[in-house]
Design goal:
There is one protein chain. The chain has about 280 residues and is α/β, with parallel strands linked by helices. It has one domain: Ribonuclease E inhibitor RraA/RraA-like (Glucose Oxidase, domain 1), CATH 3.50.30.40. The protein is built from seven helices and twelve strands. The strands form three sheets. Strands 1, 2, 3, 4, 6, 8, 11 and 12 form an eight-stranded mixed beta sheet that branches. Helix 3 packs across helix 7. It is globular and about 75 Å long. The termini are far apart.
């Protein structure tokens, strides 16, 4: 009986250790530990409809009401490149498509005698491309976690307009953009930390697409809701997006009613913000 019990114990220990060994993951080649989800165009459209007309302030209050104060408030250094207070065309309400650029360790210039244009084109296509463009859908917001400490114009008046053609409603970056005068003229909503000038080749590389990124101290997951206006940028985690929108609309309607009464009592012409 004792021999049988001992045999069973040894068998149990071997099985347990073998199972543990098989379950143990090998991180030597790297691993993604935060899972991301994908959403259909119909699911995204349903969410975006809930955010029509909402301001950053309303959404921020909605986040408070679901128990997530300060969770999605992007650092105020990330600001609008331009503001249109007549038509509010600088406002962004969209679904995040994320990408991360990192500093390169590759040479920052061609080899002696190498053609600059050929070197530049190769670097763009192989190392610092825009693969995230394939994920753009109507209503997408391009969220770029870029190299904020370097003078890199990853965004310009040309590529940002191409992203709009694909369906993007705006861009948010924690770094810089070049061609900002033209971008303002083109009326493409852009939220950035600073102005940039340098090209990407020799300065950064695309590290990932539609993975978690950090913008202004806030985690942004692909599929999250991004709202941006003159007050800044707020990010709503997808799992609370519907509840936040419901609370935010309540805040907005009360504000509109109160301000409309003040407009009327002061003889001010009614504008779209109080209708």
């Amino acid at each position: 009986m004792k021999l049988h019990s001992l045999f069973f114990l040894v068998f149990f220990l071997i099985s347990t250790l073998t199972g543990f060994s098989q379950a143990k993951k090998d991180y030597s080649k790297g691993a993604n530990l935060i899972e991301t989800q994908t959403y259909s165009a119909e699911e995204n459209a349903e969410i975006l409809k809930l955010y029509q007309g909402l301001r950053v302030a309303d959404v921020s209050d909605g986040m408070d009401m679901v128990g997530l104060p300060n969770t999605g408030l992007v650092n105020h250094e990330i600001h609008a490149d331009w503001v249109d207070t007549q038509n509010m065309s600088h406002i962004i309400r969209g679904i995040a498509v994320t990408a991360r650029y990192v500093p390169t360790q590759k040479p920052d210039r061609p080899k002696p005698g190498e053609d600059f244009a050929a070197w530049e084109g190769h670097f763009y296509s192989i190392y610092s491309n825009e693969a995230f463009a394939e994920a753009i859908q109507p209503g997408s917001v391009i969220v770029l976690d870029d190299v904020e400490d370097r003078d890199i114009g990853s965004i310009g008046s040309n590529n940002i307009l191409y992203w709009v053609k694909l369906g993007a409603v705006g861009v948010v970056t924690d770094a810089s953009s070049r061609d900002t005068d033209e971008i303002a003229l083109q009326k493409v909503p852009l939220y950035l930390r600073k102005k940039g000038r340098g090209i990407r080749p020799g300065r950064n590389e695309l590290e990932s697409v539609n993975r978690p990124v950090t913008i202004g101290g806030v985690l942004v997951m692909p599929g999250d809701v991004v709202v941006a206006d003159g007050d800044g940028v707020v990010v709503v985690p997808r799992h609370v997006a519907k509840e936040v929108a419901r609370h935010a609309h309540g805040i907005l309607e009360k504000d509109k009613a109160a301000r409309r009464n003040l407009y009327e009592s002061l003889g001010m012409p009614i504008d779209n913000t109080v209708k």
